[in-house]
Each structure stands twice: as structure tokens, then as C-alpha cells.
Amino acid sequence: MDIRYFLLSAFILASTGIQAQKTTRVNAIKANDYGVIYTLPKTSFEITLLIKKSSYRRGDFYPYAQRYLGIDNPVTEDRVIHTLEDISVRNKGIPDKNNSFMVQFQSKSFEPYVYLREDGLIVAINGELENETEEEKSLPPGENPTVNPRRFLSQETLMAGSVAKQAELVARQIFDLRRSRTDILTGEAESMPPDGNAYKVVMDEINLQEKALTELFAGNLQTEYFVRTYTIVPDAGDIDKMVVARFSTKLGPVDADDLAGEPILLTLQNRTPEIKPQLPERDLKRLETKLTEGVVYNIPGKALLTIEFRNKTITEMEADVVQYGSQDVLTKKMFDNMKKPIQVFFYPELGAIKQIIQ
Which CA distances in Å does 74 have to 61, 140, 216, 230? Predict the structure, then answer.
């Protein structure tokens, strides 16, 4: 794998919910020389796979499924199958250690302050934040076998001398349950439930027992969902069909270099127009000086992100990429108004300006 890229993986076992990072208000006071250090982000992409794990278990009487119950396709061997249900992409800003700056205020400024995320990324200057809540996405519910069917076996079945005889007796028990349900539905049962609640209790119990006993012949299925997330941090170049991970129906998600799985490919193409300013050396020095004063912010570039699996495009989206963009600066003079301080709000994931209120 190309050393220009960093590939991290993490398991998320309970849910795919994303928790918003906490923010801290930092006042620019004499103790910190009226300056607050902040960090700008660089772009990373969190690629999350939603996987369904299906575990098939054969029943004890599967050889007799067709003979006694007419079941043509019972589970004949235990097996596990993984299905790739979804691939989602999240654009996430991570602190860029090479892009930390100090926003410096005048000592006479009106109580300046900065909001920072707990990882140091800048969120706002002189502006109060609204409470933002992010909706948590829970995993789809799985499916479990009904109950242990052996709890419903009669004493005669348990004492039977062979598996074949047990299967015959259990099949007979299943037909008895079906007959009882039919008698209740048609009103021909000798003892009918006295009211609606009792009717529901009786019918639910009959259905539960029938399903559990039938699984002794047909087998059962248990399903569960889980996710695995991979983080890709691009550099300033394009990415061409990078193997993020691999996926196997037998093993589920596996590492990018594990040939047991089929590759999940990521392509990232820079779509930002290239501008090469023809500035004299004096102006270039002024530009460098400009970026050392005031508030530096990012102007992200645009890119086309594509994810492919099994020769099909799963995701194709336009993405903001800090590494493909540039930087600019808000001059220090903008923050010198003592009566009405300027307010600046940022997109923390990008380090770009969201809103300026004067």
C-alpha cells in the first residue's frame, strides 16, 4: 500500500451514531497575552460498512423434513453468510499539526473569545454557539431463533428409542397444534378462550410452539448487524482505485491485503481548477507575511469521490477536500471594534468560514 496514505480501522459494535465533539470557550485575556491558539483541519474520509451476518443452524430432524412435513429445502449444514448491506462515507476533519495558529486580539478589544473543539479545531470567534444535536443511527434489528424447542417435547418423545421415532412424534405434535389452531379459528374447539385477551395468549402460544418445533426439521436462522469503519487521509494527490478493504461472504470484512475477500475500491479525483499566480517576489513575501497575521482559514477544494465493489459503483459524490484547496486570512483589524465585535463562525470539519456577522 502507498505510504502516502494512512489507513486506520475501528470496530463499532453497538451503533453507528456519531457523537458531536464538545466545545470549549477560551477567553483572550491578559494571562494568555490576548491570544488563542487554534488548529485547522485536514480532510479525512470515514468509510463505514454495514454488514449483515446470517447464521444458519440445521435442526436435529432435518433428514425427515420432507417425509413428515413436506419441507423441501431444510438447512442441512451449519453455515455463516455475510452480506454487505451498505457503504456510507463521512467527511471528517482531523487536526493538522502543521496548521496551528494564534488569533491575536488587541488588549482594548471588547472581551474577545474563541470557541474550540476538544481536539483544538476552531468553531467560532466572538459568537455563541447554538445547541446542535446529531441524530444517532441505530443498527437494524436482528433475528433470533424462537426458543429452545426441546422444552415443548412430550415425555413420550423424550423416551423414544430412536431419532426417527422422535421425529415422527414431533411431527404429530405439530399437526395437533395446527388442528387446535384451526378449531379455535372456526369456533369448533371444545374449550374456547373466554375473551379477546385469552384468545391472543392461546394463539400466540400455539404459534410459538409450532414454529419452534418446526425448526427441528427446517433449521433456524439467526441474523445480526455490525459495522466496520475505515479512515482514509488523502494527501495533495489523487487516489486511483485504492483498496480500502476486502469483503468475503464467508469471513465478512477483511484487511486490504487479505485476498480471501473481494476489494472495495476508492477513487478520489481533484476537481479544483489549478491557478498559478504569477506574482513578483515582493508580492509573494507580502502574501507569506499576511498568512502569519490575523485569522487563517481554509478554502477547501472540490473532488469527486467514488467507491466501487464487484465492478459496480456503490457511491459517487462531490466532496470538499482541504488538501486540494488553499488558505486565506481575516486581517487583525477586523477584530478591533470595541463596541460591536465581529463574529465569525466556521465549519469545524473543514476550517472554512460559515458566516461572518458584523
Answer: 10, 26, 10, 38
